[in-house]
Amino acid sequence: AENEPPWGTPCTQLLVSVATPGCDGFPSLDSKESYELSVSEGSLLLSADTVWGALRGLETFSQLVGRDENGTYYINQTEIVDFPRFPHRGLLLDTSRHYLPLRAILETLDVMAYNKFNVFHWHIVDDPSFPYESLTFPELSKQGAFNAMSHVYSARDVQEVLEHARLRGIRVIAEFDTPGHTRSWGPGAPGLLTPCYLGKSPSGTYGPINPILNSTYEFVSSLFKEVSTVFPDFFLHLGGDEVDFTCWKSNPKIGAFMKEMGFGEDYRKLESFYIQRLLDIVSSIGKGSIVWQEVFDNGVKVRPDTIIHVWKESSPPYMEEMANVTKAGYPALLSAPWYLNRISYGQDWIAAYQVEPLKFKGVPEQKDRVIGGEACMWGEYVDVTNLTPRLW
Amino acid sequence: SRRAMGRAVGLVGLLLGLFLVPAVLVSTSLRHGVLRTEPEPELAEWEAVSNTVPENSLWPLPQRLRTSRRQLQLAPGRFQLVHGTDSLAGPACGLLQDAFRRYYDYMFGQSDRRKRGRRPVGAQEEPELLQLQVVVESLDPGCQGYPHLGSSEAYHLTVTEPVAILKADEVWGALRGLETFSQLVYEDDYGSFLVNESEIDDFPRFAHRGILLDTSRHYLPLKSILTNLDAMAFNKFNVLHWHIVDDQSFPYQSIYFPDLSDKGAYSYNHIYTPTDVQLVIEYARSRGIRVIPEFDTPGHTQSWGKGQKDLLTPCYKGQQPTGSFGPVNPILNTTYDFMTKFFKEISSVFPDAYIHLGGDEVNFSCWKSNPEVKEFMKKQGFGIDYAKLESYYIQKILDIVSSYNKGYMVWQEVFDNKAQLKPDTVVEVWIGNNYAYELSRVTGAGFTAILAAPWYLDYISYGQDWKKYYSVEPLNFPGSEEQKKLLIGGEACLWGEFVDATNLTPRLWPRASAVGERLWSSRSVTNLEDAYERLSNHRCRML
């Protein structure tokens, strides 16, 4: 026909069809994110099992739409069947080394959605600062934040992050890393951290959380009860990495406890003693746990569904660690080759891209236990002035 | 007593305090300016400089500095930056007028108290600083002119109540002094603006302190460039080395040859019009920054060939042209006709006395493949030494540019390949291997040199890499005193392969600040802990 537009029939609607309801819920590790997209003349159809799949499909659809020199929007005839290879595809942000204003976090969630990431691992507190405003222990941020008025996340801020993430099908997994990485907890929780000793008297400095006091476990229990109600995801990240034993070794009361417990000189046993109790507390609250690999490496008895987060590049080489973790029957998360804070010149995205998470010796059941991985953006050299171009 | 000693020492050889500084001769003009009729300001008891006094955020560190614990208050509603009555630059000096307003804004910013407020009733606790008077002393202060390699950037700052005095030979020194003064002003816990009584005598160690921006690998919007000029001024950089075109794109809109950018730019939106260029030059001038454009030839010219037919050498495979092109074709008269006209334009568009002509990384394979080039080599008796052909070309360009009364800067290969350079050529040493020896060779041959090799900031790496840039000592090369004098400065380079407006500023700053201090401050200023302290404060201020 003479007046036929060069593009064929104009498309007016993308029909989105979702099989299972769930609009008001939160995504989980088991959520189905598969979708099918069918673009043909006069018919645009996106169908998915769940709303989460629909979100993924919408993102893909938006990437298919092109624009020609005249400004006309068009889309090619297409058939897509899509689903994620790994169910846990995460990004870690560190808001303790440098505070990140809310807008930086929300912007990151937007870009995560463009890239079909579905887990925001919020490493919210650490040694340098404690920006999380706790209802139960308000002194923690009052004393531990860089600035208690401006460099904190209020309950409202946290809700905003949770909802912004949920609307993009992104789970928020909070990490309250203990017993190490807790220096900023000290000022707001006197008696929580281990006092270090110089000879017979306290030196005035503090080390990791004190594992020998009952008050410690009461505190931790209350805090995690709060955290588990604030953060709806089934999983909490409990940390457990890089515990420096020097302070514990210097403290005579700890020394006495070690003897009493028959731990000898093996402080990993003391670390495990703490972690064990913490894991029990968390599971009694009804949450699952993710821990950094040291917890596994140090032989802590963890429940079989505890997720082990592999982050060390060597000692042992991370693929070996992945094999060990999955062989022992635990689900594994890979981050070791994806520490994006370690910048270098040139197209380093290639090295990250070429990582094959299942490239280790193991039987298919082991490989199935690799649930995914996380890109990590630690904050030592990162704040809002350089986060976005460094990460993306 | 200390007071008497302070007076005797005066402004010629200042107290050292904790910042040990070598005694360096003060320029005679400055000494001249000092012995004037104005009464010497009453100096308070000078105490040893301590860490509590906030010169913990001066960057770059001045040559001579002493501060006292005595604090003066500034009221935004009353404090003024003014021309001193003796100044040879007055209200007609637009450059300084603009600088006064700019620095007032930097110091007091969004402060509500810029309106005239009420003076507190009763005795004031601290004395008030009402004015900074700026006195420019040279008969030719430079207000309407452009900064150049020989410009004076020295200044002398005395901060004492009720009026602080900033003296400089030329406006360029006044600009440097204003920056320093703004760094001395700080807010206390209660939001009061304070400045400690101080005396500063300052001048740059090196006269050429540059930043290279590459707008060919990625186009940089004007805003990026201007923001960068602001940051440069915060760090007392005084040269923008604008690597404006290269293989990838030709964004410079030429008046004589519009096709160059029409065909060679990434798009019509990725162009610098003559107005854009003038804007950059003027914005830079207001900050005492020279703009030295680089039109790199004969290599790095792929984008030139799109808009200028027959400029580039056609490459051959056997007897057939392959369809691809190499460096500028050095054997055609049309090449030199083009360059004559092109550099005529460049010489008039860019007011600086120098143009950078490039001359780096010329790949000879295309020339070698071309039968006419080979024929020419034979005729000229160059044998198979293509460096001679390269020099032949460069020579002619240098002569063209000289005829327009411009000096030129070249990359080191031009010197290495033995082209005949005019004595005032500036050779830029950029190759990382053994750059100290290259500096020896260049200065040994009597040429002026600038150092870029250890300061390629595009080579990012994890952690505090500013330290390695800071730790470079430019004069660490074998050579006589005369040779060392020929090293006139250096440049921090941010090549654009992986840089555009989305990441330029955080990538360049504050890493380039380390280079800024190395080039301005005294050789003995090397303490990394102290630098870290000052640099982290400086960075927050720059934000």
From TrEMBL, chain A:
Q: What class of enzyme is it?
A: hydrolase
Q: Which residues form the Glycoside hydrolase family 20 catalytic domain?
A: 86-392
Protein EC: 3.2.1.52
Offer one example of a GO biological process linked to this entry. Answer: glycosaminoglycan metabolic process
Provide the Beta-hexosaminidase eukaryotic type N-terminal domain boundaries: 26-64
Q: Extract one GO cellular component term from the record.
A: membrane
Q: Which residues are catalytic?
A: E242
**One Pfam family here:** Glyco_hydro_20
Any one GO MF term held by the record is: beta-N-acetylhexosaminidase activity
Keyword vocabulary terms for this entry: Disulfide bond, Glycoprotein, Glycosidase, Hydrolase, Lipid metabolism, Lysosome, Signal, Zymogen
Annotated catalysed reactions: a ganglioside GM2 (d18:1(4E)) + H2O = a ganglioside GM3 (d18:1(4E)) + N-acetyl-beta-D-galactosamine; a ganglioside GM2 + H2O = a ganglioside GM3 + N-acetyl-beta-D-galactosamine; Hydrolysis of terminal non-reducing N-acetyl-D-hexosamine residues in N-acetyl-beta-D-hexosaminides; N-acetyl-beta-D-6-sulfogalactosaminyl-(1->4)-alpha-L-iduronyl-(1->3)-N-acetyl-D-6-sulfogalactosamine + H2O = alpha-L-iduronyl-(1->3)-N-acetyl-D-6-sulfogalactosamine + N-acetyl-D-6-sulfogalactosamine
Per UniProt, subcellular location reads as: Lysosome
Question: What role does this protein play?
Answer: Hydrolyzes the non-reducing end N-acetyl-D-hexosamine and/or sulfated N-acetyl-D-hexosamine of glycoconjugates, such as the oligosaccharide moieties from proteins and neutral glycolipids, or from certain mucopolysaccharides. The isozyme S is as active as the isozyme A on the anionic bis-sulfated glycans, the chondroitin-6-sulfate trisaccharide (C6S-3), and the dermatan sulfate pentasaccharide, and the sulfated glycosphingolipid SM2. The isozyme B does not hydrolyze each of these substrates, however hydrolyzes efficiently neutral oligosaccharide.
Q: Which family does it belong to?
A: Belongs to the glycosyl hydrolase 20 family.
Q: How does this protein assemble?
A: There are 3 beta-hexosaminidase isozymes: isozyme A (hexosaminidase A) is a heterodimer composed of one subunit alpha and one subunit beta (chain A and B); isozyme B (hexosaminidase B) is a homodimer of two beta subunits (two chains A and B); isozyme S (hexosaminidase S) is a homodimer of two alpha subunits. The composition of the dimer (isozyme A versus isozyme S) has a significant effect on the substrate specificity of the alpha subunit active site.
Q: What is this protein called?
A: Beta-hexosaminidase subunit alpha
Which species is the source of this protein?
Psilopogon haemacephalus
| Lineage, opening ranks | Eukaryota, Metazoa, Chordata, Craniata, Vertebrata
From TrEMBL, chain B:
SUPFAM superfamilies to which the protein is assigned, alphabetical = (Trans)glycosidases, beta-N-acetylhexosaminidase-like domain
Question: Residue ranges of the Glycoside hydrolase family 20 catalytic domain?
Answer: 206-522
Q: Where is the Beta-hexosaminidase eukaryotic type N-terminal domain?
A: 58-184
Transmembrane stretches, start-end: none
Query: What Enzyme Commission number does this protein have?
Result: 3.2.1.52
Which GO terms of the molecular function aspect are on file?
beta-N-acetylhexosaminidase activity
Looking up InterPro entries in the UniProt record yields:
Beta_hexosaminidase_sua/sub, GH, Glyco_hydro_20_cat, Hex-like_dom2, HEX_eukaryotic_N
**What broad class describes the main subcellular location of this protein?**
cytoplasm
Q: Which GO terms describe its biological process?
A: carbohydrate metabolic process; ganglioside catabolic process; glycosaminoglycan metabolic process
Q: Where in the cell?
A: Cytoplasmic vesicle, Secretory vesicle, Cortical granule; Lysosome
Q: Which Gene Ontology terms of cellular component type are present?
A: cortical granule; lysosome; membrane
The chemistry this enzyme catalyses reads: Hydrolysis of terminal non-reducing N-acetyl-D-hexosamine residues in N-acetyl-beta-D-hexosaminides; beta-D-GalNAc-(1->4)-alpha-L-IdoA-(1->3)-beta-D-GalNAc-4-sulfate-(1->4)-alpha-L-IdoA-(1->3)-D-GalNAc-4-sulfate + H2O = alpha-L-IdoA-(1->3)-beta-D-GalNAc-4-sulfate-(1->4)-alpha-L-IdoA-(1->3)-D-GalNAc-4-sulfate + N-acetyl-D-galactosamine; N-acetyl-beta-D-6-sulfogalactosaminyl-(1->4)-alpha-L-iduronyl-(1->3)-N-acetyl-D-6-sulfogalactosamine + H2O = alpha-L-iduronyl-(1->3)-N-acetyl-D-6-sulfogalactosamine + N-acetyl-D-6-sulfogalactosamine; a ganglioside GM2 (d18:1(4E)) + H2O = a ganglioside GM3 (d18:1(4E)) + N-acetyl-beta-D-galactosamine
Which residues constitute the catalytic centre?
A: E361 (proton donor)
- Keyword set, alphabetical order: Cytoplasmic vesicle, Disulfide bond, Glycoprotein, Glycosidase, Hydrolase, Lipid metabolism, Lysosome, Signal
- Which one Pfam family would you cite for this protein? Glycohydro_20b2
Q: Which domain of life is it from?
A: Eukaryota
Q: Which family does it belong to?
A: Belongs to the glycosyl hydrolase 20 family.
Subunit notes for this chain? There are 3 forms of beta-hexosaminidase: hexosaminidase A is a heterodimer composed of one subunit alpha and one subunit beta (chain A and B); hexosaminidase B is a homodimer of two beta subunits (two chains A and B); hexosaminidase S is a homodimer of two alpha subunits. The composition of the dimer (isozyme A versus isozyme S) has a significant effect on the substrate specificity of the alpha subunit active site.
User: In UniProt terms, what function does this protein have?
Assistant: Hydrolyzes the non-reducing end N-acetyl-D-hexosamine and/or sulfated N-acetyl-D-hexosamine of glycoconjugates, such as the oligosaccharide moieties from proteins and neutral glycolipids, or from certain mucopolysaccharides. The isozyme B does not hydrolyze each of these substrates, however hydrolyzes efficiently neutral oligosaccharide. Only the isozyme A is responsible for the degradation of GM2 gangliosides in the presence of GM2A. During fertilization is responsible, at least in part, for the zona block to polyspermy.
Name of the protein: Beta-hexosaminidase subunit beta
